[in-house]
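task queued by scheduler; priority normal; single chain, no ligands, no partner chains; default sampling; output format set to structure tokens
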Amino acid sequence: MAIKLNSILAVGFNTRPLAHSLNKAGYEVYAVDFFGDLDLFPHVKDSLIITKELESNYEFLKDQYGKFLVHFTIEMLRKHKNINYLLIGSGLDNNYEGREFILKKIKEKGLKVKNVNNNLEIIKKARDIEKIYEYLKSKKIIVPLSVSYEKFKGKNKIGIEFPFILKKKRSAGGLNVFKIESVENLTFQLKILKVKGFNPSDWLIQEFVEGIHVSCTIISNGAECEIISINRQIIGEKFLNPPGDFVYCGNIVPANLLKEDNKLISEISLILTKKLGLKGINGFDFVLKNHYPYLMEINPRIPGSIRASEKVLDLNLLDLHVQSFDPKRWDIVKNKIRSAQATGFATKFIFFAPPKEIDKELLNKINNIEFVHDKTEPIKKILKEEPLCTILFKGKNFSESYFGALKIIDKIKNIIH
């Protein structure tokens, strides 16, 4: 069967949400994915699943999957030479060499696939948080006190006191972010990191900003941009068993903030979107302290909150993302975003496996629960801190949405225990 005119290859750590929306919009979807969740396959024409191709598991591959995403992306493009679009989700945020290699291979092979992602130079600028902070300060926008680890080690503390944050300059999903309470705590954490190949130039010391974790989702054509949604982020919540205190565990959309808070978050996000020339859908992470948003990170790609935003706005945002790369379609995209109205609230939880191993026999029961997505295939035991599933629950108001999602978590825990 010939590939459709609107065929697309989605690449990422978890492509199920992308594939779901793209398939619903009429695209013929191909995927390169890490997990291969059961509910991915109804939405794709063909796929390459890293854990299956390598006959390995999450624990062994979680720190090195980026290079395999690159390898299998090229393999999929070689297999299906007439795919129209390439969309890269999470998983290659900081793998500049890998992205460059994919684009080089596309050019060498003369493939007609259109890259519906930010270009590499823009991604690099968006991920250079030190320069982003310098720019914001020049605009009189307050940012967290930050200094490179190398300067901090040289006693240039610029007023940062305990507790502070030790984080990678280009972190992802809240991994490689640590709250440091004391000198002893710092020494201990550094010993652990040095075993894994700690490079001081990759790390940042930052003041600990305590507040509400929020994000802003924007769509742009490189010049004009529109706010899609402002979202509350769920970070490191113990009842979801995350593998770290700052690990991303979901969202509530919309964030249910004061109008003044939304306005300031939007303004900063719009300034940066235009400055960087971002295209398509992108995300900005903040911590809201005393009604002031402190920028933490820019994700120059489709953010994890996208399905919750789609649910609330009743829009196919993945389709609009692809259309935003066509100058002739921008006015249609812009008008759809402007006319969209939020109907209720949507809560997304990512549930990680608890310390106890989950027997594969229990997975079918979990997978059959309503509102459960990213369903783990029941072929092996699930180990501690491995992502088990996602919950997405829509309600009429903030509390109905949140507590409705909590009830699903309770059902899962009852099955496990």
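post-processing summary
- The first strand starts at residue 7 and ends at 12.
- The two ends are 47 Å apart (CA to CA).
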